[in-house]
Amino acid sequence: MQEHIVVLTGAGISAESGLSTFRDSDGLWEQHNVYDVATPEAFERNQELVLRFYNERRRQLQTVQPNPAHRILAELENRFRVTVVTQNVDDLHERGGSSCVLHLHGELTKARSTADPGLIYDIGYNDIHPGDTCDHGSQLRPHIVWFGEEVPMLDAAAELVRTADRLLIVGTSLQVYPAAGLVYEVDVQVPVTVIDPGEPAAVSRARVIRKGASEGLAEWVRMLG
């Protein structure tokens, strides 16, 4: 049976492709305070601003490409069963070739109904406008988990982490909950590696590779043999 590698990824892996990280040191994202563009209250207050913000993110996403880190993870599927659990809302893992990706915080390339969260539409890199509605006539919104909202895929992600033979954490500071709590779902016997150039939150017994995603993953694969 193939070894199962579960990979938790965050903004650091997408930053190498040129995408802005969600929370920079100044608390702004593309010059917007996140609480003005990434909360249900913001959407109620200024729907047009929020939609425009995500339309811009979608257009930006269309202009960037997967980087070597995304491709390394995809190539691992030649030897292992690989599941990527990502906090990122971009589609770079899929475009890089990964076949099993769980998005914790939603997906930029999808829209959903404001009335029925189960009504989700693939929109690619197209805009969402005020007045664009679902099949039942309710306004569409980005298929994104905003601050203050539940993370519907969290239980499924925890189940996946519990089946890991190796846990790999790439490009995330492990400081944003509830996603950061996933590292505690792994069995105590399972080797854990953290790849991040900064100072990720302490994970007991983890091997830490303090390098960027692409360089660190290449090093980790060499160590695998």
Report what the structure shows.
Helices cover 29% and strands 21% of the residues. It has 225 residues and is an alpha/beta fold. The strands form three sheets. Strands 5-4-1-9-10-11 form a six-stranded parallel sheet, with helices on both faces. The two termini are 18 Å apart. Residues 24-28 have low confidence and may be disordered.
CATH architecture label name of the largest domain: 3-Layer(aba) Sandwich
Oligomerization category of the chains in this entry = single chain
What percentage of the residues does DSSP assign to strands (E)? 15-25%
- Structural class category: alpha/beta
Q: If helices are DSSP runs of H or I spanning 4 or more residues, what is the number of helices? A: 8
Flag low-confidence runs.
24-28
Features:
11 strands; 225 residues; 6-stranded parallel β-sheet; Rossmann fold; elongated; 8 helices; alpha/beta; SIR2/SIRT2 'Small Domain'
Give a brief outline of the structure.
The protein is an alpha/beta fold and 225 residues long. It contains eight helices and eleven strands.
List the helices and strands and how they pair.
Layout: E1 4-9, H1 11-15, E2 28-29, E3 32-33, H2 34-37, H3 40-45, H4 47-63, H5 68-75, E4 81-86, H6 92-96, E5 101-103, E6 106-113, E7 120-122, E8 140-144, H7 154-162, E9 166-170, E10 192-195, E11 207-209, H8 213-224
Parallel strand pairs: 1-4, 1-9, 4-5, 9-10, 10-11
Antiparallel strand pairs: 2-3, 6-7, 6-8
Helix pairs in contact: 5-8
